[in-house]
Amino acid sequence: MMREEDKRTEASVSGLTAGKCVAEEMLSASAEQTRAWAAQLGHALEPGDVLALWGELGAGKTTFCQGLAQGLEIASWRRVVSPTFTLINEYTGRLPFYHFDFYRLEHPGELEELGFRDYFWGNGVCAVEWAERWPELLPERTQVITIEVVGDETRRLKRWSPCGRLNGEGAGD
Question: What span, in angstroms and rounded, lies between the C-alpha atoms of 139 and 50?
């Protein structure tokens, strides 16, 4: 029998991954491996790419963003932190990197005030922590990164892409 918490978790993931297929999967034994996998993805990202990050508190979403920043050639990637209170942090590298956190958003109007569409449909790369709170705001082309805690340091990471675009071709929506 499925616990109520597991049902809520499954529902929030399925809301983000509907219409998407698993493009990549890895088992990470450390934060360093998670960052390295994310850096590899960061090297391949193109202007307009949006990533929705899903994982419980402490799963490694911000660690993943540090790796993305490294792959986007952001010199200060080690200083990437979750924008929990600022809602967005901006970094300059090979491409602009916009790191969002929807955790404390009370309503979508707060994002409207930030001009989120300019970011999501702009020339940079966006990563959104706690994206399951407002999935309707994300472009259809959004890739989803799920991070599942399977041990003290071990994480199962999956990259979900819109079916038919599994290798991350093109960012246009």
Answer: 8
C-alpha–C-alpha distance, residues 41 and 95, integer Å: 13
Strands 125-129 and 50-54: parallel
Query: Domains in the chain: how many in total?
Result: 1
Burial (Cβ within 10 Å: 0-12, 13-18, ≥19) of residue 37: buried
Q: Is 38 a domain residue?
A: yes
**CB burial class (10 A; 0-12, 13-18, 19+) of residue 113?**
exposed
Angstrom distance (rounded) from CA 68 to CA 63: 9
Contact in structure between 69 and 164 (CB atoms under 8 Å): no
Quote the domain boundaries for residue 155: 26-162
Residue 122, domain CATH: 3.40.50.300
Determine which of 13-22, 28-37, 95-104 has the lowest per-residue pLDDT on average.
Answer: 13-22
- pTM score above 0.85: no
- Amino acid code (one letter) for 24: E
Please check whether residue 23 is in contact with residue 161, taking contact to mean a CB–CB distance below 8 angstroms: yes
Helix (H) or strand (E) holding 159: strand 155-162
